[in-house]
Amino acid sequence: MTTCLTRAPRATAVPEVPRAAAPAAEVRTRVVVPLRFPDGYSTTADVVTFHGLVDGKEHLLLGLGDWRGRLAALPDGGTPPLVRPHSECLTGDVFGSERCDCGPQLREAVERIADEGGFLLYLRQEGRGIGLYAKLDAYALQDAGLDTYEANLALGRGEDERDYRAAAQMLRAVGAERIRLLSNNPDKAAQLEAYGVAVDERVPTGVHLSEANHRYLAVKRDHTSHTLDLGDLGELTA
Known about the structure:
Pfam families: GTP_cyclohydro2. It is an enzyme of class 3 (hydrolase). This protein has helices spanning about 65-75, 90-95, 100-115, 130-145, 150-155, 165-175, 185-195, 215-225, and strands at about 25-35, 40-50, 60-65, 80-85, 120-125, 180, 200-205. The protein is of the alpha/beta class. Strands 1-2-3-5-4-6-7 form a 7-stranded mixed β-sheet, sandwiched between helices. The protein is globular and about 55 Å long.
């Protein structure tokens, strides 16, 4: 007989965000890049780099669809651009790992933003900010029974070390001081608001659920209040 253990949800409060204003960043380079995904979807992005980002990392902003029209309409109260801050995930974005939902979220975000006009921010903060090797170390701990947040803590790192000051700098540098945020994560909205970007609306992404990632997604739902409807697979069982 198999015994299933259901874990009680942990606290879901979003950590308080320090409200330290970031200095202004400047556009460094803008170049047009045609994009094509493995499923055949294609579009064109205006890829932007920056001077003066507070963390010194090489983050990218991709302008998709009629982003110029969205920005031009802002002073008259127009609908803000749709924006997704997407944290780099080599395993998911490039190799199609099913341990997370990052690759499908990236693919979804590009098409939705291209349809509506806005920006994808590709942020170089792998593994919720702990780096690629540490993320894979955390995977090994998850295989031994820890969840995604417990594994980071066991490595002596924070549950989530991402900081969105650079993301706010990038948006302000292109004139996007009001946005609609494409994200299931309330912490992204809280941080961007704290750093001077008004979030008019938080738009959830789709739920990209698989047998390999359901526990990971359920922990995000229960521990950090991600907007995720997982159905029966969302229960934490062992």
